[in-house]
Write a structure and sequence with these properties.
Length: 440
């Protein structure tokens, strides 16, 4: 199926072609026609399958200039990204969006709300504006995005309160990666005869993501992480840590190793967080080290790897985390470090994960990877005048084989400074393999 087969406005179809959107994902294929019919929807789909476009495209197509759509989402980062996506999809239709979240000017946000068709808001600031009567909105369309995440963050009561200020005559859409009982109960209260679009539990992890688990001891986390980074050679990666302190420690460790890494967590000032996310999106940061709460709302399509420096404490968090890669039909890799005391959590995760046990790569494995990378790079490089001059001078002293060997040795010597700076020989890792298999 193609986007052109949906009953979307021509301007939207043209925009999708320009930005390279060709085929709809499963959730888009199933949700868009139902939303265009004006029905309420409860949609369950894993993170990274195109949920934003699934509700944004039909709403942009049907909304009138005098109407408003309210999208409620758990984090300010996600609110900003959804606003950007709606603006991108609706640019030819001159769609305007208001992004509403705490820490920004009330007056500016109130002015944006009055002049915009789409309001993308976090629950806390939205409820504050409604209760203080600074705004009064009557949206014809309401979307609850990442509903399970809002539940986890304690926003359920705020959501119920918000709906007291919203007219009953509306189309309501609820999107969630998982469907806990409290979300099911909420859907019964705020939706009318909804159409259910559901992904089976066994399909909760994205088929485009390969998942690997490496067994280590607690004191080997940093060494194992760097060894895996050198071996896997990610282009852009998110590294999830359990606490803000861990995030700071790991990001500083990676920077000390020469990697382009930045920290992202809730103790950082909002402006700083936005700067880090923007830099990560624009490929100015290679490794984003983050906590769950902050990073779940990040929507970047070219993340090649996700590293779980610590396993999350529940299955839903695991699904959310690895969903940061393998987006928009691309392939991704999820790598988790697991210590023996985390086997109980792993037992839960294996119900939705494609469990593949791997050994930590050795120094020889990393050298082999480096050799292949250098050979590939050499094939693409054209000799310049300076290089030719160097070789001509060296030819007076050495034969070509010796010259090439010396250059190769020089390359590996430079690389080994980075690899050997902090990595110790990771021993005993594979000895626990049998223990690991028995535990799970």
């Amino acid at each position: 199926m193609k986007f052109s087969e949906f009953n979307l406005k021509k301007e939207i179809i043209d925009t999708l072609k320009e930005i390279g959107f060709e085929k709809p994902s499963t959730i888009q294929e199933e949700a868009i026609p139902v939303i265009l019919e004006g029905k309420d929807v409860v949609a369950q789909a894993q993170t990274g399958t195109g949920k934003t476009a699934a509700f944004a495209l039909p709403l942009i197509s049907v909304i009138k200039p005098t109407q408003k759509a309210l999208i409620i989402t758990p984090t300010r980062e996600l609110a900003i990204q959804i606003s950007e996506e709606i603006y991108r999809f609706g640019k030819k239709l001159k769609i305007h969006t208001a992004t509403v979240y705490g820490g920004s000017s009330y007056n500016r946000q109130i002015k944006q709300i009055k002049n915009s068709q789409f309001i993308v808001a976090t629950p806390g600031r939205l409820l504050d504006l409604l209760k203080s009567k600074k705004i009064e909105i009557k949206p014809e369309y309401v979307v609850l995005d990442e509903a399970d995440e809002m539940l986890d963050m304690g926003f359920l009561d705020d959501i119920k309160e918000i709906f007291k200020f919203i007219p009953h005559k509306r189309q309501t859409l609820l999107f969630s990666a998982t469907m806990p009982n409290l979300i099911k109960e909420l859907s019964k209260q705020i939706l009318k005869n909804p159409e259910f679009i559901e992904v089976a539990r066994g399909q909760m992890t994205n088929k485009n993501i390969k998942e690997y688990f490496y067994v280590i001891d607690e004191n080997e986390r940093k060494d194992a992480l760097v060894r895996l980074i050198d071996y896997k050679n990610p282009q852009k990666a998110i590294i999830f840590c359990r606490t803000k302190k861990n995030v700071d420690e790991v990001s500083e460790f990676l920077k000390g190793m020469g990697f382009n890494a930045k920290a992202l967590h809730g103790d950082m000032a909002q402006r700083k967080r936005e700067e880090v996310i923007k830099a990560f999106k624009n490929d100015k940061v290679e490794f984003l080290v983050a906590t769950d709460v902050v990073a779940r709302g990040i929507d970047v399509n070219n993340v090649t790897h996700v590293f779980n420096y610590h396993l999350p404490l529940d299955v839903d968090s695991y699904v959310h985390r690895i969903g940061r890669t393998g987006r928009a039909g691309k392939r991704g890799i999820a790598i988790s470090l697991v210590t023996p005391h985390e086997f109980r959590v792993l037992n839960k995760i294996k119900k939705v994960a494609k469990l593949t046990l791997k050994e930590i790569p050795t120094s020889e494995d990393i050298k082999d990877i480096e050799i292949k990378k250098i050979i590939r790079a050499l094939k693409e490089i054209e000799a310049d005048a300076k290089s030719i001059k160097i070789i001509e001078e060296l030819q007076n002293k050495y034969d070509l084989f010796t010259i090439a060997t010396k250059f190769a040795s020089f390359l590996f010597k430079e690389k080994s400074k980075k690899i050997g700076k902090s990595i110790k020989e990771v021993q005993k890792l594979i000895k626990r393999d049998q223990k690991f298999k028995k535990a799970i």
